[in-house]
Amino acid sequence: LIAIVLDRQPSGTRRLRLGQDHADPQPPPGEVRIRTSLAGICNTDLEIVQGYAGFEGVLGHEFVGVVDLAEDPALLGQRVVGEINVPCGTCPTCCANRPTHCPDRTALGIRGRDGVLAEYFCLPARNLHLVPEGIPDRVAVFTEPLAAACEILEQVHVRPTDRVVVLGDGKLGLLVAQVLALTGCELTVLGHHAAKLAILARQGIPTQVGDDGLAASADVVVECTGRAEGFDLARRLVRPRGMLVLKSTCHDLVQTDLSRLVVDEIHVVGSRCGPFSAALRLLSQGLIDVTSLVEAEYALGDALLALEHAGRRGALKVLVRS
Amino acid sequence: LIAIVLDRQPSGTRRLRLGQDHADPQPPPGEVRIRTSLAGICNTDLEIVQGYAGFEGVLGHEFVGVVDLAEDPALLGQRVVGEINVPCGTCPTCCANRPTHCPDRTALGIRGRDGVLAEYFCLPARNLHLVPEGIPDRVAVFTEPLAAACEILEQVHVRPTDRVVVLGDGKLGLLVAQVLALTGCELTVLGHHAAKLAILARQGIPTQVGDDGLAASADVVVECTGRAEGFDLARRLVRPRGMLVLKSTCHDLVQTDLSRLVVDEIHVVGSRCGPFSAALRLLSQGLIDVTSLVEAEYALGDALLALEHAGRRGALKVLVRS
Question: Which one of A250, A262, A270 has the shortest CB-CB distance to B271?
Fold first, then answer.
């Protein structure tokens, strides 16, 4: 079977390859086998290829697919998306209802578990969400990143009267901006690419290139630039006692004067995976334009080209069809 | 009149001096004149002497004193403490009920307003809090730093079942630890000085030298070390989705990998000035041992020696009596 595999050569160097003879995965108890229909490439995948998280195995975690082997016959043939973290379910962190932070978790294509850039993969049945009929595959495949955008509203109370700034017009920034706009807040999105900002402008969301004219008056700033400099810009735009949400996982070291956070009593919160159920509801209602974010679609056999494309500066969502 | 004045020599270099001929301050409308009884030296004072905040004028902001000139005759002769920030009262930040963050504020001995290391100084009447009779001067002088410790509980809901770690056994750490212990939380205080930690141990607060054996399991970590390294230690001790409170204003640049905040969805909040009314209630009830924190007391004429003493590594509270 075909799969995109990250492994190590005998010399120890990382190697990303198109495996032609990948074994047919067999689901352990509690898990199902899913035939991938469509997968999305995320910046995290690109970071993993660069060595982040020390992952080895099949890459990919954004998918929509069809259940192909399951203990529960009702699941067979169902079109599904799935949460990517597989917690142990019994440790103190899981018992405290923070399963996505389980220290022993595996994560699809990220940590100790083969991912979705393959013909088939396995996931626990409890991770699955059925995709409503009205949502096409090219929309459903955005459930995972859209859930991550919704996580901001799980963590922070964004009020309809808040001034909110989203930094970054990449894939994540465009989803985050659309979710936040639904609150009715006074939103401005800062980016570098007029064409990408136009996707938001079409929905009436105010955008601007660069930070000219913006004062330190935002109640909430969401950092989605994926760049170390984003933090200092975010800090400069947030008001005293405001909220700064860190959404992008930039592994570069940031050098910063934390006393500014103390004097201005700023809140900072990191934000990661989010609620699939809410993301599917927003997609069902047609409230989020995700198809404008699709830049290209490749066949699974060309997935190495897809990854190369996704890594180009400024690229939006690249999809891989199985 | 005598006052400790930070000014600039014609060459531009900072000079801290004992002024012998300081003018008698005259309160503008809305303000009172206060005769300083006892003043405390804070790390912020030492930072200001080093040039932080670009302040020039009379140093000092922690005080207890007696009103000596006032429009309202009921205030004359009253023993008072006072909030240090003087906001404009009319800007958007003030109208949003964040007066301590008013961009046009002055602050006693810190920003555009002569401080308390003098025989007399002025402050708006609305900044004053009467000191209850049962609280001696040597206790009342701790109201301002104790209020800053209380600010943590204004910002963060610390539950009786939370695991809390306080980093630092300096003046601020010892006050913060005592305030947090009142919540009933499972508290551990990490420090470097057995003698200082003993002040807490006498109250039954668990302390330890160094971080041996502590896992990343704290619900709340409060950083009071005053050192740049404190941030990374705090981050290592807090659990996923936990709360990291930054209390010390360290102006050294911190180099850190913010992606750990994102992956673990950590909350960070900076914390500064706090509620005087709550601090006075805690002092009235005798719930906070502040007298053990007094290291030395100097006369105002020896205040330069007092500042030198306060700057010694590991020094606790140095007081100055007028």
Answer: A262
